[in-house]
């Protein structure tokens, strides 16, 4: 056994329930409501009004018991509800890994998009069940529900990668995803008002 600073956890099986979209045993679960997404949608007034009224759940993140510790490889299931705010599709906050490391997302159900931004270039991967989206080190990443049912994906990431949400507030994500008139997804420049 190598000499680790902190002892790793024991080998274990974690059960994924594809109907309920849960992990067993389960670690911490995070619920993000509209009130948690200040400053992220283009139409901040509409987001703020929704937060003040029904304050819907936009997405949840259920983690396995594997801790976010150096050398461990935690997993989580993120489920994004279908919906849009002034046409902008519901999405995760998005983050950068301060300790730049890669990550994989595996789409499980529904349809979505994996938006990535390295500060200059934007990348968009269509996510369908079975698609593995690879996030290279140094690319901020956000997931978007592009369909009419919940979009769920498995994330596997280095436990020491960290989550920097402020990076996205400062730098944006390069593009935003909107629901087009025919139901298709439209990617627009980050600051562009729809209809202009
Ligand atoms: Fe990440």
**What is the second-level CATH architecture?**
Sandwich
Q: Give helix % range.
A: under 10%
Walk across the major sheet and give the strand order: 3-4-5-13-8-11
The helix/strand order is EEEHEEEEEEEEEEHEE
Question: Summary?
Answer:
This protein has 196 residues and is mostly beta strands. It has helices at 44-52, 166-171; strands at residues 15-17, 22-24, 29-33, 57-63, 75-80, 84-85, 88-89, 103-109, 112-117, 122-127, 132-135, 140-145, 151-156, 175-179, 185-189. The structure holds fe (ii) ion.
Task: Give a verbal description of the structure.
Pfam families: GPI. It catalyses: alpha-D-glucose 6-phosphate = beta-D-fructose 6-phosphate. GO terms for molecular function: glucose-6-phosphate isomerase activity; metal ion binding. Belongs to the archaeal-type GPI family. Pathway: Carbohydrate degradation; glycolysis; D-glyceraldehyde 3-phosphate and glycerone phosphate from D-glucose: step 2/4. The protein is mostly beta strands and 196 residues long. The chain has one domain: Jelly Rolls. It is 8% helix and 37% strand. The protein is built from 2 helices and 15 strands. It has helices at residues 44-52, 166-171, and strands spanning 15-17, 22-24, 29-33, 57-63, 75-80, 84-85, 88-89, 103-109, 112-117, 122-127, 132-135, 140-145, 151-156, 175-179, 185-189. The chain has a 6-stranded antiparallel β-sheet, with no helix packed on it. Strands 10-9-12 form a 3-stranded antiparallel β-sheet, with no helix packed on it. β9 and β10 (122-127) form a beta hairpin. The protein is globular and about 55 Å long. It starts with 14 loop residues before the first strand and ends in a 7-residue tail after the last strand. The structure holds fe (ii) ion (FE2). Fe (ii) ion binds next to loops.
């Amino acid at each position: 056994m190598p000499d680790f600073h902190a002892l790793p956890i024991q080998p274990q099986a974690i059960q994924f329930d594809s109907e309920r979209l849960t992990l067993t045993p389960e670690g911490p679960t995070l619920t993000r409501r509209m009130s948690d997404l200040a400053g992220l949608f283009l139409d901040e007034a509409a987001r703020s009004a929704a937060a003040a009224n029904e304050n819907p759940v936009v997405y949840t993140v259920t983690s396995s018991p594997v801790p976010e510790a150096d050398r461990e490889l935690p997993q989580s299931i993120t489920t994004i509800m279908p919906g849009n705010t002034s046409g902008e599709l519901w999405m995760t906050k998005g983050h950068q890994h301060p300790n730049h490391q890669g990550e994989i997302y595996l789409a499980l159900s529904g349809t979505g998009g994996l938006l990535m931004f390295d500060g200059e270039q934007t990348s968009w991967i269509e996510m369908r069940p079975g698609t593995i989206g690879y996030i290279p080190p140094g690319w901020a990443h956000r997931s978007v529900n592009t369909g009419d049912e919940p979009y769920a994906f498995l994330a596997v990431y280095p436990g020491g990668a960290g989550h920097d949400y402020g990076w996205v507030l400062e730098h944006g994500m390069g593009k935003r995803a909107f629901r087009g008139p025919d139901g298709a997804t439209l990617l627009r420049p980050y600051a562009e008002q729809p209809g202009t």
